[in-house]
Here is the input.
Amino acid sequence: MNSKTIVIGLMMLFSLSLFGQVGIGTNEISTKAMLQIESKKGEEYKGFMPPKVPNDAAKASIAPAPEDKGLVIYVEETQSLEVWNGTNWQQTHKNTSSAYAKDLFISEYVEGSSNNKAIEIANFTGRSINLGDYALLDNSNGGGTGTGSGNATGRLGGLGGSVINLNSVILNHGEVYVVAGTTNLPGRTDLRDLADQSSASLTFNGDDAVILMKNNGNTVVDVIGIPFLQWKYGEDVTLRRKPGYGPSTVYIPGQFEVKPIDTFNGLGSHTF
Here is the structure.
């Protein structure tokens, strides 16, 4: 290292400590910016490349803490830009030219009479997935820790309710999996005939958020309703996800068609 390099380095350190701002490729830094990057290099324009991970498993291995919120990555397998919000990864952008969903999602929600409840889970990821890695959480009445018959583990530990572990079966691309309650509806098709799995813990009544999660509760995959909020968003209705919509960690009512109570005729198939 020559004396000129040392002098330049000292000047840069002095400048950073004095002004607290950094400019890359530019000396004209906005007074509101801590870091400003010039997109033009000579006659060429350049972009900003965020850190990349190959898939969701690699993303999960980062294991950020709540204080790491704001962390940004790009997931190559799902072609999505995601931000850690302190609790889970929030997708901010996805390449819409992809014909695949980034993960499993809840394609239908049935809140029928008595205990006739059902959740349909769809796989349009382009690959086969073992459902044993996933679970449903019935977040009863916006309940917190300690309510219901079980509690989420991992980073979802603050969410109380009934945890329903899915059977360890392979769900292929284009297939759906139906989890239903255990009560018959007189005069109509028995939900158990349409179900791939039955659970007495599936007891939501229209004001309970239903959460699809994986990685032992470390990752929220899809949400219907608002966790911790007792809001009658889905009472006495069937909610069927519209074509073109996949998983979302935030409930968006406009993504669902609303059908009358005890509408079961859509269970068992889905159009993505």
